[in-house]
Amino acid sequence: MNRYRETYAEINLKHLYHNLKSIQKIVHPKTVIPVVKADAYGHGAVEVVRYLIDKGIDYFAVSLLEEALELRRVYPNIELLCMGIIENEGLLIASENNITVTMSNFNQLQNCPKLSKTLKIHLKVDTGMNRLGFKSDHDIKEVIDEIQKNEKFFLEGIFTHFSTADENISYYKKQLNRFDDIFTNLNFKFKMIHVSNSSSQIQFEKDLPWTTHTRLGISLYGLTYIDHIKFLKNTFTLKTKISQLNRLTAGEFVGYGASYESSGQEIIAVLPIGYADGFIRKNTGGFVEINHKRYPIVGRICMDMTFVKVDESVQLHDEVILFGGLISIDEVADRLDTINYEVICQISKRVPRIYKK
Ligand SMILES: Cc1ncc(COP(=O)(O)O)c(C=O)c1O
User: Fold this and answer.
1) How many domains are there within the chain?
2) CA of 332 to the centre of ligand 1 (A)
3) Which residues contact 198 (CB under 8 A, 6 or more apart)?
4) Active site residue: 21, 191, 256, 357, which one?
5) pLDDT at 165
6) Are residues 165 and 259 in the same domain?
7) 338 is in which domain, residue-wise?
8) Amino acid 184: pLDDT
9) Ligand 1 atom nearest residue 41's Cα
10) Are residues 193 and 308 in the same domain?
11) Whose CA is nearest to atom 6 of ligand 1?
12) What's 327's domain CATH number?
């Protein structure tokens, strides 16, 4: 699609690969599975996967069957694990498209239609998050027996998910011990065993000799909540250019609701980005970067436009970095009282992703 507006997200694929390689080194000899759900955390799954396939990666994880099918249409030969719930006809579609599913409850199993192709299954164990998965020893044994009765099922993997690996280590250990308990009492040899997300693999994977893979989401995209980790590189920079400069005298008002009043001679830059782009209204009061300096966002953010108070050094069409430069994604997350995951995922499809290789 042609672009007539200078607003875009610059995706740095080199940095993304740097992050992957650095973490792959930490978890060696296990294999990192890149998590590319939610359009690769807003980076664009088709392009991210294309780049990683070129680097020799052939196994990816998503959440939805729709996400897996989008990738399958473009990449017939990669392995795809869906980590969310797939039921009924979805299981048939998954088997026909060689998409690996997560088995989390008996309902999925009982309502699985007749399959003509093999369905690869990873068993989800709930070790304390109380989201998805089988919880009791009894249920886990029973589901394994049930799966083995169906010749179209291939039980390839087992996994769990940690709810506190980046904040509460004692709860992480509790979950880990529970998984260890279950796993050692099972009389089944799994080809793939994976438990870690970004935070846990960076910190603890070396202590887990029995896993084969890890699932890497947020730190693939350069973000972490572990303070001392400094090797990750930013992959998502939100940019635009100034569309108009307005000179105000004292007592003039800016934008909807006339919520910002100029206190003297002021210059207001209008940026072509707004809440329909995922740059939500709560960003008012934060900052943007122009020519390596920080400038405040003022007035109410509109659907398509944002106001910034600038100075004489700023020119029409100057580049503006909303985040990913001087202003980090973590700073925006703090500003919005949320987590870095949400900052990148919420930038909408209206913002084109431009790839830097
Ligand atoms: C089941 C599962 N595994 C792995 C991940 C990746 O986690 P992170 O982005 O913290 O690495 C997620 C993300 O939410 C997930 O739901």
Assistant:
1) 2
2) 21
3) 23, 165, 166, 216, 217, 218, 219, 220, 224
4) 256
5) 84
6) no
7) 236-356
8) 87
9) 9
10) no
11) 217
12) 2.40.37.10
